[in-house]
Amino acid sequence: MTGVIEAGCDEAGRGCLAGPVFAAAVIFPGDFNHPLLNDSKKMSSLQREKAADIIKKTALSYALGQADVKEIDRLNILKASIIAMHRALDQLSIFPEHIIVDGNRFTPYRHIKHQCIVKGDGKYTSIAAASILAKTERDSYMNLLHRQFPLYGWNRNKGYPTEAHRKAINDYGISPYHRRTFRLYNEQIRIPDF
Fold this sequence. Notes:
alpha/beta, 5-stranded mixed beta sheet, 5 strands
């Protein structure tokens, strides 16, 4: 929106079996655009790191929030993702007048008008930036958790349900960082050999 202080919001980690969900909120100057900023899922980790540096240098304000595994299990992943976005918005140094959110669901934040945009991270620079920051921060966090629990390969899968991750859960059980309300096991792995 022209002439309005607008924050873009997105999250990372909704589809994971382990770890918190991270969210970011970003406010750019009204005319800001950069060719490197895109949907974080379409970028390499190196591109995301480079883009994160650009975002941190050029944003008028940016902030991160997260919801932990216990909150995800208690509330459900959608509500926890929205809480993480609200926590990111709480920490902005500039108060937004309008919020744009990637996806189709959001809970109103402090009576500020918002708009949900499906695939918004590929359409709006501030949402793309939020997606990049949420993803890079979450990846970094999962790399730290990997040091504590190396059996699950979180330095590679970041908690997503890869076959190797599901096999590790089957072989070693779950960690305190696994989401107990998610389908952690793959039935194909659990079928015994005859």
